Amino acid sequence: VSGIRHPSEIEFPREEFTRCPYAFYEAMRREEPIYRIPGQDAFLVSRWEDIAYVAHHPELFSADAGEAAQGVSRDEMLARFGLTAGEADFTPLTFSRCDGAEHRAKRVLAAKLVSRERLAAVAPFVERTAHGLIDAFAGRGEVELVSEFSAPLPNLVICELLGMPQDRADLFMRISQGTPPGSVSRFIPPGEQTARRAQGDELREYIRSQVLDRYRHPRPDDFLSEFVAAHVERRGELDELLLTYLTSEASTLLFGGLVTTQHLITNTMWLLLRFPEEHRRVREDRSLIRPMLEESLRVEAPFYITEVRARQDTELAGVSVPAGASVYKIWPSGNHDAAKFDDPDTFRIGRPELAKTHLGFGRGAHLCVGAPLARLEGEIAFAALLDRLRDVRAAPQNTYEPIDTIAFRSLRELHLEFDP
Ligand code: HEM
Questions:
Q1: Short-list 413, 409, 90, CA closest to 264
Q2: Dist. CA 160–CA 4, nearest whole Å
Q3: CA–CA separation, 273 vs 239, rounded Å?
Q4: Contact assessment for residue 271 and residue 285, using Cβ atoms and an 8 Å cutoff
Q5: N-terminal to C-terminal alpha carbon distance within the chain
Q6: Confidence band (pLDDT; 50, 70, 90) for 79?
Q7: What are the residues whose beta carbons fall under 8 Å from the beta carbon of 152, sequence distance 6 or more?
Q8: Per-residue pLDDT tens for 338-373?
Q9: Interval 140-195: pLDDT, tens
Q10: H or E element: which one contains 8?
């Protein structure tokens, strides 16, 4: 997509949108920053200020985006357990779909997965794994980065953190490489939805058995055992509602950071190839790895869209948004907003205060809970890649084909050549 005058010139979402959505975003920010998708009660929010406003006003915009977006409505979910909306203070919904006190209470317990102590304990594993993956291709002088490094690394790491067997990483990888479930499921073609649901059922059975196993046989120093125990203590027993919740939450923690972290690694390498001067700087000064990752999360944010729902009739930057309407926070559009970031399309390592202002990890109460893990993996991955591969360059066979989903942005493959 290039050189468009008005967002209505592009049907959202259409195939070429995934190739380069930035011109579409730019047209939205300029012409109609709160853009109503024609014929729908759905609004795309494109400017940094407005995205932040939506993210910081959960009393107006609920994270529970509803049935069309998420496959099952809150009411239906509660009805399965004989509950109604008013009386339920604990629901089987993952915290990414909850608001207020329920969101906070669930999030605090889940965030222990990435506590300082747990990350310090897992760091040597991340480093060993990164070097082990590089060992397999370092002598060849070429690599397809996505399949040989960016994808397997987060898979093996999350299995380690959740105490899942490493041989399951293969299965998780196959599932995570498909179109993701969650807040963008309304954009998944119906045929694919059926296949994904079947895969989801198989996976749910597996995670459920893991949760039950940690309940019956808690392990020492094990996140999942402690997570299950903490919830059982609060609720008093492991009933079907809690088991359903724990199974969904463990799946979200497992999958939330797989393709996202994969895309962070791939996109950052892609940016280094496109901006050789920045590549040279970070090779010469490894303290720039961390700011490089933040800038990568701004320029090529892996995670594209979060849907929320207007709780009441409201006004957003002068546009009337009716109760029940879908409101999409388009994170990468905010990240390219010239009103917030100077020269926004340029990858420039070391922008001041960037970690607090880019939208790569979202914003507000739902800011990515896994961000400390993603940062740790990114830092270790690039320290290893820069140390081990000299004179990295793009291989001639690259087509730079984007992945086929509007939920995420990255490349299917990235072939590199280097001096072994
Ligand atoms: C570079 C890697 C990552 C990116 C770009 C990313 C991006 C995001 C974004 C944009 C959100 C906000 C969604 C919203 O507003 O509803 C989010 C939330 C979330 N992320 Fe990540 N994420 C990454 C890594 C991870 C990891 C490693 C995990 C798990 C270990 C994870 C788990 C979650 C969860 C559970 C939420 C929901 C938080 C809440 O609702 O309070 N993410 N992520």
A1: 409
A2: 46
A3: 52
A4: no
A5: 38
A6: confident
A7: 133, 169, 173
A8: 999 999 999 999 999 999 999 999 999 999 999 999
A9: 999 999 999 999 999 999 999 999 988 777 778 777 776 544 444 555 666 666 76
A10: none
Q: From 307, 328, 368, give the residue whose CB has the most ligand 1 atoms within 8 Å, as the site to mutate.
A: 368
Residue 48 beta carbon below 6 angstroms from any ligand 1 atom: no
Q: Where are the beta strands (DSSP E) in 305-401?
A: 305-310, 314-316, 319-321, 326-330, 390-394
Please report the pLDDT score of residue 191 as a whole number. Answer: 66
Q: How far is the CA of 9 from the centre of ligand 1 (A)?
A: 31
Instruction: For residue 362, give the ligand 1 atom closest to its CA.
Output: 10
Looking at the whole model, is its pTM more than 0.70?
yes
Residue nearest to atom 4 of ligand 1 (CA): 260
- Residues contacting residue 352 through CB under 8 Å, at least 6 positions apart: none
Q: Count of CB atoms within 10 A of residue 169's CB?
A: 20
User: Could you count the other beta carbons within 10 Å of the beta carbon of residue 383?
Assistant: 14
For residue 389, is pLDDT > 80?
Answer: yes
Q: What is the DSSP letter of 303?
A: B
For residue 371, how far is its CA from the centre of ligand 1 (angstroms)?
7
Q: Whose CA is nearest to atom 39 of ligand 1?
A: 366
Contacts of 121 (CB under 8 A, 6+ apart): 221
62-81 burial: b if 16+ Cβ within 10 Å, else e: bbbbbeebbbeebeebbeee
